[in-house]
Amino acid sequence: MNSVLSGYDTLDVLGTALGVYVAIAALGTLVGMPWQYADGAGVMVVQAGGSVLAFVLAVAFLALLHRT
Q1: Which InterPro entries does the UniProt entry name for this protein (predicted)?
Q2: Cα–Cα 20 to 30 A to 17, which of 49, 57, 63, 67?
Q3: 15-48: buried (b, 16+ CB within 10 Å) or exposed (e) per residue?
């Protein structure tokens, strides 16, 4: 019986899906501009920085996953 994922490690597929999801969620957060509802500049910096950091971590995770 052939499956769609035959020849692939299941954890590679799940890791790729998770990395792509986190990257899309981070970009969606940046596009949604949640800092427009914040009261101070410090909160805006933390929210934007957190979104960028989440995207960077997702891309690094995907790069690490596909190098091994």
Answers
A1: DUF8123
A2: 49
A3: beeebeebbeebeebbeeeebeeeeeeeebeebb
